[in-house]
Amino acid sequence: MKECIQVEGVNKVYDLGDIQVQALKDISFSLPDSSFVSFVGPSGSGKTTLLNLIGCLDVPTSGRIDICGEDITKLSYKERARFRGNNLGIIFQDFNLISVLTVFENIEYPLIMVQNLPASERRERVMELLESVEMLEQKDKFPSQISGGQKQRVAVARALAVKPRFVLADEPTANLDHETAYKIISLMKKMRDERGTSFIFSTHDLKVVKEVDYIYKIEDGFLKGKEKVGGENV
User: Fold this and answer.
1) CATH code where residue 116 lies
2) What is residue 140's predicted lDDT score, i.e. its pLDDT?
3) Which residues fall within 8 angstroms of residue 171, CB to CB, at 6 or more apart?
4) pTM for the predicted model, two decimal places
């Protein structure tokens, strides 16, 4: 299976005045297309830092990150923003929906700001996504008028709007009740199966961990191992 992400010898050091904190230490791994995996570890272990590096939101102190055949560590700030907009979606723990935009407009937003698609093509894609996440009837409502679970469905649809190769999700179920969380996870699996999109989680929520194919354990900035869910360490 083709590898969509390759991380080689990545280190990340933060300078905090007179103190240096090494958040990631010689991290290496690869992920194939259509991955459904989670990085797990206690708070401060480095898992969110790793997602930020993969998501072109930050750059490593050393090492290489190759995504879709592109070494993103060599890209400028503007090039990383362009690459991020065209290749990945991000699902935030607190949804990050724009309060003054409707459900429809929130999903449409990246298609205007990132891909600048024609209006007819934008509408067709947004309507398709609304149907996929079962939010057609809510399309004209504002974020304040829908539930937490519905907000997360909109966030999933927005992340998929640009047809990304992969989606990064940082604690995507933390604010959801048990039933809604499983519905969102099932929706993501459906998108993975139908679209071939990779989903990469950073979480310690067992609801997510039990549903992924593999978990990667991070402790004190080190990658401690890879484990097949329901199977043996690999």
Assistant:
1) 3.40.50.300
2) 97
3) 93, 202, 203, 205
4) 0.85
